[in-house]
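Example complex used in Figure S2.
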Amino acid sequence: MKIGDHDWHLEPLGKHIWRGRMEAGQLLALARSVKGEGGQLSALWGSDDHHLGAGFAIHLAFMTSAGLVWGSCALAENVAVYPDFEPIFPQAGRMQRATFDLLGIRAESAVDERKWLRHGAWAADTFPLRKGFDDTQPATKEVDEYPFVRVEGDGVHEIPVGPIHAGTIEPGHFRFSIIGERVLRLEQRLGYTHKGIEKRFEGMNIATGAKLAGRVSGDSHSAYAWAYSMAVESASASEVPVRALWLRALFLEIERVANHLGDLGYLGNDVALSFGFMQFWRLKEEWLRLAAKHFGHRYLFDCIVPGGVAVDISGSGTAELTAEAGRIELEARELKAIYDDQATLQERFANTGVCSPALASRLGLTGLAGRASGQARDARIQFPQAPYDQCKVNMATHSHGDVLARAEVRFAELFESLRLIRELVKAMPEGKIFVPLNRVEKVCEGLGWVEGWRGEVLVAVRIGADGKLDRVHPHDPSWQNWPLLEVGMLGNIVPDFPLINKSFNLSYSGPDL
Amino acid sequence: MATHLILQKMFKTGIVSEPAPPADPELCTREQDLHGEIVRVFGQAVAIRHVDAGSCNGCELEIHALNGPHYNIEGLGVKFVASPRHADLLLVTGPVSRNLEVALGRTYDATPEPKWVVAVGDCGCSGGMFGESYATSGKVSNVIPVDVEVPGCPPTPVSLLQGILAAVSKERK
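Predicted assembly (686 residues):
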């Protein structure tokens, strides 16, 4: 398979998914070629392969013109360094820092070597993802010292915010350096919700793993559960019934609709239009109740399982979902007309929190926020898995990269998902919804890739010869997008931060792992 | 102008708020000495500070939903506040990550007595899928005293209300 001018001899690992094992220098060259043709780095993680008779390994997932490429480099025995990918893909920075905290392998001569996920919970010289890690050691309880970058000068001062915020949101620390009300610099310190998810996966059976994967970031449950299932199904060479794939897409679109309705309400709320909040949250509540009525759970938790889905749609479910999708679209269009016509809302949304397309491309902004900054990527469209190869999706993009653009893309994707839902239930093929996975008898790997409502969710899986999970890496699109929130905030005023933050609505739990 | 459109939509929508569920005293895990006295003085009015101590954000979705029009939470005298210093009750989702343990302890200390803690979700009540590990301390009551536990993954807004009201209700189990 060619990327740039070079054939990289990659093996297919699934539809539009490729696998390559190479030397460090080659992996670096592959990264340059991907960058050269306009691709992006999606994920970077490491693994301890000593129990398999090897050393450490570093893994990168690229979005290329040919699909998703999972490139790995096995490091030699006693080697714990790999090439620094940050100069090529700036989004690699935090992933490399996290990889060091968890595994103790380091990007060679990286500029920023500060810790990322490690606060005071474990000692600096122990690494949780090493196989010999002692899980029973007590927390170090050391006070978490973190060297923020200081901005100095006349009239500059800092506002520290968090980790516990004033609203009902996840914990994280934001350090604003400001002059007057203008933000000169925003620096994030995340990792407060680190739950040791990757370690938890080790030794887990495949079915339980799906439940844990779905809880990496609860608001993207279906995206994670599907990506995880895709990965273990590909690893075990199992076939999934077609109807189950259609139902998975239905669940994913229901999840997208629920999240977009909620966010559009909060965007109104953050500019003092509480009418918008109440209306959109009324619609969201009705939508969640519909999901609970027909599928047994308001957020469809545990509806997607390895081998298929756990719940089917009934005839009355099809009829009601079709009718409700139509009604909610009508109501949301009415509300959009009000948002469009509300001068105070438009004034707050427009030109606020701008990420230009050039910056978005350089720093790797992805998913919904990426599409609002001219990054026309959507796995459902460019690299469709079933059923998106039959149910075509229309892409929503915008070029302004401000809060207004992200709201516009949300509206467009909301309407598109409501259309898709009607199409999916109408054309859904008959058949089984679940087939048990093939037994795993030797070490095998798989990768799942799903366009969630926030952006692409990846789950890479290695199953051991005993049929238990050996290494699982779930990747949230928020990894790439958090740094862009720092940049998008520059020059804005502090009171616009909640609005800009909500317009991205990134996950903390997802990248904190 | 959008004002007439807003008014039109409001009248067309009408009131969707539903009656509150009864408090569920079964969810109480602890009774404080002063309980009866506090309830006598303050009634059910309660100011809540939410703390995400490491959840997957699923529980937060349902806490947000509580603020929607169906549940009319402020109409019941329940209000979310921005600071623990203004709060009577901490609504804590878990599992408590070790990285947030110190902040949770400080939030608890900053909340004036008398106070209640409601642990939310399977993870807040038991550690859930994440359990206890190098990275988490498990259930909320491992870290701060808890009065009410509301299980569920995530608990529905109705069970959240039943738990919150149980903390500040005269009924005991």
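The CA atoms of residues 89 and 116 of chain B lie 5 Å apart. Chain B touches chain A through 53 residues (CB under 8 Å).
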